[in-house]
Amino acid sequence: MGDSYIRHIELLGFERRFFPSQHYVYMFLVKWSDLSEKLIYRKFSEIYAFHKALKEMFPIESGDIDIKDRILPPLPAPKWFDNQKTTETRQGTLAEYCHSLINLPPKISRCQLLLSFYQVREEDENPPAPHPFKKNETYLMAKDNSRSNTSEITGPIILQTYRVIADYNKGSKYQLNLKEGEQVDIVEKSTNGWWFCQCESRRGWVPASYLEPLEGPDETEEQEPNYAGELFVTTKAYTAEQDDELTLQEGETIEVIHKLLEGWWVIRQGEQTGHYPSMFLRKSGEIRPADTEREFDRRATPPPRRSTIRNAKSIHTRGRQRISQDTYRRNSRRYLHQRGQREAHSTPANQRQKLQSVQESQANNENNNQNGSTPPLSDQTKALPTMPPRPSKEVILERCTEHTRKKVSIRYSI
């Protein structure tokens, strides 16, 4: 390890294993001074044995000579029998212990005993063989509660398992190399189509298009199309590479009609529909904060589409249900036509009242003229207000907002 030392230790959660017998191991993400990050697994009995050895190495700092000199954090002894409940409720104490340990003076936080304990072992990189009938269960700890009271710890999260349909070679250090047939656990599903996964002891970003559920070919979380559309603005230009994609420049306003999990959303511009990378879109009126280095890296290029993957092999006999662009375009035009008809036949209530008032005034004037009486000029002015001429289409498009301009252009295009 040389002069490297540990900068940070984060408790991610714990794993329930069934081979050779049921037991629990804690998952730690160890960040070293050389900017490397390693995932390690430790039993609580191992952690407590390390704690006892550390107390023997530093008797003054552990308070064995004088309790006033104690700076080593306390750690409760393991119980006779560890179950899931005790393993879960112990996470808050263990996270606080690791945080306090790294903030001790360098003679303790950088001692060889501590560095050796948190180094990657062979069993960390190559975990023991899983149980032939039971799969290991992973439980993540909520980040906001990593240093809180044990009573505030949320329940465990069982990760979803997906299968890799084709070999994937990573494009950056934040991604994973995958082989067809491997199974990965999903830690985070990002709307841009890059999912954070765990494959055995490896963790990184993977395109969702390379993964399929084990239960069936279709995604149960996939949303239905919304032809009413949501207004979005393009944040980056994109040139279409497939026939069912759209080419747009930065700053254009479009409507999203179908949000797909693989990160390629179906959008509408006028009567045209097509796929567009969701990472190049932001909701109209939304202001995004600057991305971190990791976020920028995985958002640099859109994930590959499922249709472009070669030699994809699925375990399901039935293919995924997909909506064609012809269906999107036909349903979108039908919706726009119906919306235009509703807007054309809908007159606001106040306009109807004004029209009725004008018609009644005109009828009264006609009756007065027939009777030979002429109302005062002031009454005529009040009864018949002067209506300004209707502006032309060009004037409307020039003076209205972008939102109104878009609606007018859609209506005239029908």
UniProtKB/TrEMBL annotation:
Residues 372-383 have a biased composition (Polar residues). It comes from Acipenser oxyrinchus oxyrinchus. It holds the Pfam family PX. Residues 4-125 form the PX domain. Residues 283-300 have a biased composition (Basic and acidic residues). Residues 279-395 are annotated as: Disordered. Residues 157-216, 227-286 form the SH3 domain. GO terms for molecular function: phosphatidylinositol binding; superoxide-generating NADPH oxidase activator activity. This is Neutrophil cytosolic factor 1-like. Residues 356-371 have a biased composition (Low complexity). The keyword Phosphoprotein applies. Keywords: Cytoplasm, Phosphoprotein, Repeat, SH3 domain. Residues 330-339 have a biased composition (Basic residues). PROSITE patterns: PX (PS50195), SH3 (PS50002). GO terms for biological process: respiratory burst; superoxide anion generation. SUPFAM superfamilies: PX domain, SH3-domain. The lineage of its organism: Eukaryota, Metazoa, Chordata, Craniata, Vertebrata. InterPro entries: NADPH_Oxidase/PX-Domain, NCF1_C, NCF1_PBR/AIR, NCF1_SH3_2, P47PHOX, PX_dom, PX_dom_sf, PX_p47phox.
